[in-house]
Specification:
Number of helices: 23
Structural class: mainly alpha
Shape: globular
Distance between the termini: 11 Å
Number of domains: 2
Radius of gyration: 22 Å
Number of strands: 0
């Protein structure tokens, strides 16, 4: 298990690293062409595009993964599952896009204060339709355990999308609309590539009876999944109302640095869930899951410390001093992302027991708390209040999700170790909120030594070896 998990997670992480790394080269250019208000509008539209598949897609992708991985099904039934999921997305997003297109002017003026025109909103609707196709076809490669094909499609899409967006903004001067045009073009091309790479899974089949069965499984997940994602982005909307689009832009730039943690999280996610679903019945699975959790916490705490301590320097290198002020939210947002991943990836007892209503209730409760905390903290603390609300809600969600999951599928975690490792990472990383260190060579050395000490202590507390030879032994390489 460990060997295949490590190999697949490495491929997914590498593809994400290459994709994110290529997209980051545009930051110095875009921040000098787009204003903070433009970036704020871009952030709000981007998060609306993220939420759309959760509502319009009805969570069907999760049902496709759940049933397609069921080893009791024959190949023909699996093809019907994959094909029905694809055709549902093709039809549903096209219908919703056509219905919303006449409201583009209202959305541009009323929601985004005229920062973009109605044409940009219509472009975003087209982008959402193409994005839904790319998302479900690219994920199908994961369900086939074709990590290399997934990586090829994912990296290719990002390279082409980023290059196209760059051309649309720099040469065609299309502003925010150019970003979505470029992304739509890249995802359209690699949707076709993903379909071709998984062509043995698809047939010209749209099975209504099968669709109803999958919707029975997926629809209870929609409110909880929607709440989970809204909870990640509600801070931008409250910040926009309380402080304006300029602060959303600064906050969003800090969030970009914090999102680097996803280079690891997304790679791990890509490999982990299929392995859990295929191995949880094995007698030694709980012990293996415990070891994975300990290594996972060490890696995420190392990322938390490094991004937090060096976030200011990275932002100064990539952006202007105005945007670099967003470094202060990096530790809180990285912690929130890590806790969100724990709530998702390590509460697999809920999925194993098929008790999806628990996830829905947990996520809805956390969303209510997120809205309340943002309304309370943002007016007083601005961007720091938004980031603090984000972190607190996801810490609570992770604790609640793990508690429920342990009741349904027990894993013998060493809780004192895990909590001590978490405490070390939080204490060191969040020092930057209260300690505005000068940017200098000496301070870089001091921060590097502090990071090395924190990571070493965390490894000792968790009992995870730092020597590569020991890691290869554990993985069976």
């Amino acid at each position: 298990m460990f060997k295949q998990l490590l190999r697949d997670a490495s491929l997914y992480s590498l593809s994400t690293l290459l994709a994110r790394g290529f997209s980051f080269i545009t930051v110095p250019v875009f921040t000098r062409i787009l204003s903070p208000a433009d970036y704020g509008a871009l952030d709000l539209l981007s998060y609306a595009a993220v939420l759309a598949p959760l509502v319009i897609g009805a969570g069907l992708d999760q049902a496709v993964g759940r049933y397609y991985l069921d080893s009791s099904l024959d190949e023909e039934e699996r093809r019907r599952i994959a094909s029905t999921g694809l055709f549902y997305n093709l039809i549903a997003f096209a219908v919703v896009g056509l219905l919303l297109a006449p409201a583009a002017d209202f959305l541009a003026r009323g929601w985004l204060a005229g920062q973009v025109g109605p044409g940009t909103v219509q472009i975003v609707l087209v982008f959402m339709w193409i994005q839904s196709i790319f998302y479900i076809t690219n994920n199908q490669l994961r369900y086939l355990f074709r990590a290399r094909a997934f990586a090829l499609s994912n990296v290719g899409n990002t390279v082409l999308s980023t290059a196209s967006s760059f051309a649309a903004i720099v040469w065609l001067d299309l502003g925010v609309a150019g970003v979505f045009l470029g992304q739509a073009f890249g995802q359209l091309v690699f949707s076709v590539v993903s379909i071709w790479l998984a062509r043995d899974c698809y047939r010209a089949v749209f099975d209504l009876a099968l669709l109803r069965r999958m919707l029975v499984y997926s629809l209870p997940l929609v409110p909880g999944t929607l709440a989970f994602f809204v909870m990640q982005y509600v801070d931008r909307y409250v910040l926009n109302d309380a402080r304006g689009l300029a602060e959303v832009g600064i906050y969003g730039m800090g969030a970009r640095i914090a999102s680097l943690v996803n280079l690891f999280l997304m790679g791990f996610q890509g490999a982990w869930w299929p392995h859990v679903m295929s191995a949880f019945r094995e007698p030694d699975a709980p012990g293996k899951f415990r070891k994975v959790a300990e290594v996972y916490l060490l890696v995420t705490m190392a990322i938390l410390v490094l991004l937090s301590l060096f976030g200011h320097e990275v932002l100064l290198l990539l952006t202007t001093p105005e945007f670099a002020a967003g470094y202060v939210v990096v530790p809180l947002l990285v912690l929130g992302a890590v806790m969100a991943s724990v709530a998702n990836y390590f509460s697999y007892g809920i999925q194993i027991a098929e008790k999806n209503h628990y996830r829905m209730l947990l996520n809805l409760g956390a969303l209510v708390a997120a809205v309340g905390l943002n309304l309370l903290l943002v007016p007083a603390l601005g961007v720091v209040g938004a980031a603090l609300a984000n972190a607190l809600c996801f810490v609570a969600l992770a604790a609640g999700s793990l508690a429920v999951s342990q009741r349904l599928y027990h894993v013998p975690y060493a809780w004192p170790r895990l909590l001590a490792g978490l405490a070390i990472g939080i204490a060191v990383s969040h020092a930057v909120i209260f300690w505005e260190a000068p940017v200098s060579l000496l301070m870089l050395v001091v921060k590097g030594a502090l990071a090395a000490l924190a990571i070493t202590l965390t490894a000792l507390v968790l009992g995870v070896p730092l020597r590569p030879r020991e890691w290869r032994r554990i993985a069976g390489l």
